[in-house]
Amino acid sequence: MKRFLMGNQAIALGAINAGVNLVSGYPGTPSSEILETVAANNPGDIYVEWSANEKAAMEVAAGASYAGARVMVTMKQVGLSVAADALLSLAYVGIKGGFVVVVADDPGPISSQTEQDSRCFGVFAKLPVFDPSSPAEAYLMIEDAFLLSEKYQIPVIFRPTTRICHACADLDHNDIRTTNKPSGFIKDSKWVIFPKRAYEGHLHLASVSKQIAADFSCYGYNSIQGNGRLTIAASGIAYQYCREALDLLGQPQIKLAKIATPTPFPEQFALSFLQNTDAVICMEELDPVIEKELLQVVGKHNLPIKVYGKLTGNLPEAGEYSVETVSAALADILGIELPKNEMPQLPDLPNRPPVLCAACPHRASFYLVKKACAGQDAVFSGDIGCYTLGNAAPLSMVDTCLCMGAGITVAQGLQKINPETLHFAFIGDSTFFASGLTGTVNAAYNQTKIIIVVLDNNTTAMTGHQPHPGTGQTMMGEISDKISIEKTLYALGINSVEVCNPLDCDRTMAAIKRAIAFPSASALIMRSPCAVKIKQFTPAKINTDKCSGCAYCIEELGCPALTKQNGIITIDQEHCKGCMLCTQICPCGAIEKVITKEE
After folding, report:
1. What would the CATH number be for the domain defined by 2-183+192-217?
2. How far is CA 305 from CA 55, 281, 295, in A?
3. Around 491, how many Cα atoms within 13 Å sit in the side-chain half-sphere?
């Protein structure tokens, strides 16, 4: 039947139909909906889990694959860096049940700290990569990835990008599932990666890469359309942009080749579309993977073909592509003018930087730490999550942000060089479990005087409110014991741990000052639920008789519910969720809670 599906949903349903037995992963935009869709459509025999981090997810899947299960691991591109140790070794050891690693790349980047291209990881790890160009293609190709993995007994990387993950399309979906019954684990020395075994595994990878390249040269989703002396070689969403651009420019004579499997490179397929070609233009987002491969093919076979792309300066080296990007590059290479845009010119959109939500408890945490450190030299190391937005004025409370978990360890390095400065390390509850434990142990072991601030809003907020070990819920719908952050901190060697509600300003301020005074590593757990999850609330209001119009509340907090128009401070009743932080900091006592009839 026809269904209108997001790309991530299509990948998930394709995996279910392919007989996947286990799905593990860690949430990260743009990949999160894949695992969630499997959980929502679970026929009852698939094990699904949000793992503590990507490395854990990779290793859980490895164990299941050793027992013959078909497994899928989901993450975004930066998560692949976390899982790299396990995946590189797994490539050498090999697998039994089909093993597909779905890595959602984020050109732009729209919601990431890097623009890394996972196709390059495939080259590095000598693993095959599938690069779908549409949700419908992703739905169909995911089963091929499982089959290829089992044929060669190695993991396979499946690389959708943001526009594939989040685009929606009509596609033909059926509920016919492949049955895969795991055979169970059979003891064998091959599962142990001794140096000699690794050497043999490396040779095996090199050998099968050649065979896979030959298979990919015959793969149905690698296709050629059109004729002409000029060829475009495109992959992923860039292929769709090229189709539109050719129509826009009125250039149907240009040959368009789609490369759906960039690694290992399908050389024989490339030779077929390079026949009777004078020049080839490479259209691919992020790194010049296909461009470099084509340059090698052209050089190896001594072909008189000019290769255009990023390396020649004809295409951008970073960021997302678009129909406009591709059209402009084609027009420049062809020496033709772009057709005039007859669409009316729209006004520029106002600059709206991302901000912490109204009533976000992180705002209170940042504000109170800032006030507690007034007059002292302090550095605030941040981490990956909603709270990274604490960097913006007026809070200005994130001085460093490197990668997940690094806030705690970066603070330690800073403290060793500047011991007279106060060093705070902010980290979220989900991130603490994902990658903060090692840094915490390091601080305790090396007796480093830092203050760890765990911003605990009882969810993984930035990626869509997924559960984590501290929430007491799993993706299988089970209730588990909550892993206590405070007990974990004590167990890891932190001897001063206090739990605060950051919306109780006086008590929290006192706790912060005690943490500052503690002679070694200390921790504060700022515990208050995410504002988005608050269902019932009573907003605040301005008492105009008391308000001086000083705008202290706005200048100190930057809450989007607080505004000043024509010298009058107002509170947007639709945005305000009644955290009452502003009522506690107003110097005039002019902000009050709205009294309801029930009260």
Report:
1. 3.40.50.970
2. 43, 10, 9
3. 8
pTM score, whole prediction = 0.90
Quote the Cα angle for 96-120-278, to 5°.
120
CATH 3.40.50.920 spans which residues of the chain? Answer: 223-334
The top-level CATH class assigned to 223-334 is: alpha beta
**Cβ count near 417 (within 10 Å):** 7
pLDDT tens track for 121-171: 999 999 999 999 999 999 999 999 999 999 999 999 999 999 999 999 999
CATH of the domain spanning 361-533: 3.40.50.970
User: Residue 428 class from Cβ within 10 Å (0-12 exposed, 13-18 middle, 19+ buried)?
Assistant: buried
**Mean pLDDT throughout 486-498?**
97
ω into residue 262 within 30 of 0, thus cis?
no
| Comparison of pLDDT for 175 and 590, the residue scoring more | 590
Given CATH 3.40.50.150, say whether it is the number of domain 540-593: no
Task: With H, G, I as helix, E, B as strand and everything else as coil, classify residue 48.
Answer: strand
Q: 308 by DSSP, 3-state: which?
A: strand
In angstroms, the CA 380 to CA 397 distance is 6
Q: What is the largest CA-CA distance in the chain?
A: 84
Report d(CA 527, CA 458) in Å as an integer: 8
Residue 585 parent element (H or E): helix 581-585
Outline where 403-558 has alpha helix (H): 406-417, 429-431, 437-445, 485-491, 505-517, 552-557
- The band of 197, judged by pLDDT with boundaries at 50, 70 and 90, is confident
Q: What are the C-alpha distances in Å from 182 to residues 19, 21, 453, 543?
A: 10, 8, 44, 67
- The residues with which 48 forms a beta bridge, in sequence order, are 23
Residue 213 has what pLDDT?
97
Q: Which residues contact 190 (CB under 8 A, 6 or more apart)?
A: 93, 94, 197
| Rounded distance between C-alpha atoms, residue 391 and residue 186, angstroms | 52
